[in-house]
Each structure stands twice: as C-alpha cells, then as structure tokens.
Amino acid sequence: MIKTKMAERLKANQMSDTFTNAIFLTLSGGFQDAYTYLCRGKVFANAQTGNIVLMSTHFFEGEFGLILHYLIPVISFIFGICIAEIQHIFFKNYKKIHWRQIVLAFEIVILLVVGFIPNNLNILANALVSFVAAMQVQTFRKLRGNTYASTMCIGNMRSGSEALCGYFKTHNKKLLIKALEYFSIIFMFAVGAGFGSLAADRWGIRSIWFSCAFLFISFVIMFIRLEIEEEKEEELEKAVENEFK
C-alpha cells in the first residue's frame, strides 16, 4: 500500500510536467513562431496548419515556386516527431540524464546553428526550426498530468475552455485551477511571440538564440526536479523497508 501511494506521488510530480518548466518551453515555442515568420520569409515554425493553408493557396493560384517554401517545414515537422520517438526508445532508461533533457540539448544545438544560417538559406533554417518544434511538442505533452502543447495554442484553448465550463457547472476548484493553467500557458506563448518580434527587429536572424536560452533554463530546471525525485525514491525505499520490518 505504501509503495503504491509513493509511486503515485512520484508519477504526479514528474520533472518534465511542472508549470515552471512549461512556462519556459512555451516562451520558446512562441518565440520560434515569431522568428520564422518575421525573419525567415513568413513561414510558421510550429503552426503547420498555417503552412498547409499557405501552401495550398499558392498551389491553386499557380505559384508553384513557393510550394516548397511551406512543404519542407511540414515534412521536417513530421520527421522531428519520429526522431523524438526514437530518442525516447533509446534513452528512456538512461540513468545519468533524463531522455527529455537529451532532446532539449539536441534542440539547443540545432537552434544555435540556425542563428548562423544566412537569409538566402531560409528554407533550411525553417526546416530546422520546425524540426525542433516537432521534437518539443512530441516530448513535452503533459502539464501537471494534463495534456498540453508548448508550441501551439488551439489545443490549450479547447482544454482550458472545457475546464472553465466544467467549473461553472460543478464549482470544482480543481477545474478552475486547470483552466487558469491552460490560459496562463496561452498568455506565455503570446509573450514569447511578442518578445520574438522585438528581438527579431533588433537582432535579426541571431535572435533565435533567445529561444536557446529559454530551453536551457528548462534543461536546468529538470536537473533540479531530478534531485527531488531521487530524494522521493529514497523515501519510498525506506518506507518499504520499514513496512516489512
């Protein structure tokens, strides 16, 4: 019984799904979208729906030369999801560092490279940022146990609105907290996008390095949470030992 309860507590406090961690991931997600749209030829890094709409529009208008401009980020996004899953499979049981931190490190390195890619290679830059966005949205999918996205808003809007309606119906404060968390994440995405627009105007293509900074903070936060989890695991082991003495 003790072991079961402690295991549930550990699962409920995973280092990757804390609200603090979600804030910095979402700031980075909003920043990336603003960056690619303003600095890299009006392509969305995360909102692939927008890319598909623009690609289809150019196709039906006969502007076939612009199709790859939007198709490549879409393909890169799909590829990024696959790579994130492969990393999950190979590093899930790695002890020295959490597999999600490995994904974050990979994202940071790629975005550092993007800052050096010149404007005449915007297609490559957009592909890499979309690849990073895909890895992030596939890897970080939970906020306090609830499904969310750090690189787009529509799912969070739906979940937040649903929780808010549930609160008005039942007056369950947990639903209100859930709704506020979702709307807070949407707000942080907007803040990240707004900051991205200011940074892009001042620092141009190298402004993407601010996104690296947000991801690095998330990387460090997960180390802190890892230490907390290790302490709880030790507490669990002691509790089990005492139970059978």
Account of the 3D structure:
By secondary structure, the chain is an all-alpha fold. It is built from 9 helices and 2 strands. Strand 1 (142-143) and strand 2 form a beta hairpin. It is globular and about 55 Å long. 38% of the residues are buried. Mean pLDDT is 86; it is low at 1-12 and 230-234.
Helix content, binned percent = over 70%
| Number of helices, where a helix is a run of at least 4 consecutive DSSP H or I residues | 9
Q: What is the makeup of the main sheet? A: 2 strands, antiparallel
Give the beta-strand count. Answer: 2
The span between the termini is: 15 Å
Q: What is the global morphology? A: globular
* SSE pattern: HHHHHHEEHHH
Which whole number gives the mean pLDDT? 86
Strand order of the largest sheet: 1-2
Radius of gyration: 20 Å
- Global structural class: mainly alpha
Stretches where pLDDT falls below 50 for ≥5 residues?
1-12, 230-234
**In percent, how much strand structure appears in the residues?**
under 5%
